[in-house]
Amino acid sequence: MAYFTYQSKKIFYRETGNGEPLMLLHGNTASSVMFEMLLPLYQDNFKVILMDFLGNGKSDRLDEFPADVWMNQAKQVIGLIEHLKYQKVNLAGTSGGAWTAVNAAMERPDLIKSVAADSFDGRTLADDFAEKLIAERTFAKNDASARQFYEWCQGDDWEKVVDLDTKALMECAERKLPLFQKSLDHLKVPVLFLGSLEDSMVRSNLAEEYEQMKRQVQNGHVYFFPTGGHPAIASNAEAAARIIAEFINSVN
To answer: Distance between CA 215 and CA 192 in Å, rounded?
Structure first.
């Protein structure tokens, strides 16, 4: 297993496949293992880079997660890219990882070729985000399949990881913290906003939000699947992989 050191802590990463670099970024309470079953769809065309954000998966644990978690994770992404000495990496972030991907591209556009941002609320959290989060996490912690997913991603201490993440997201929502370090006007790399119209874990007006973001960025694209749950990159796995590859290949 490969690790690199970031702010005195070890972050797990893995590389597989051939081609130009594509980093897949997991969402909150998940880890890079969520992409294991998706790898065959990407690794023949890309050098796929996986990582576990601090506090998750095989990476070192944290005493608490920062409320600006997606900005913090973006710096971890940049740290790994610099460690690997890559340039012009493609980022595909899903759910919370979508905010991370966009923030990384804003921070270091010189290192990022393109961003695919999948299944996330957009510029702000939905008005009912906190209420839905508590309901979802409460249900999940008592649901056998959800508990199995958490343990698969995090290990035996999954419940502590989930609770720390919930606390950070609640603080983010209550304080109405900015989700992006800058306005989307500053996003210089091409971005594909991807999602499913049946996704119940994102804002109800996601199609409208994505279109507004598309108009705000310099080179934005939107694609929606008519069916599928959260996240779209998994519920529409084969089609999403094809669309993401076509998007990356269209970027000069």
So the answer is: 12
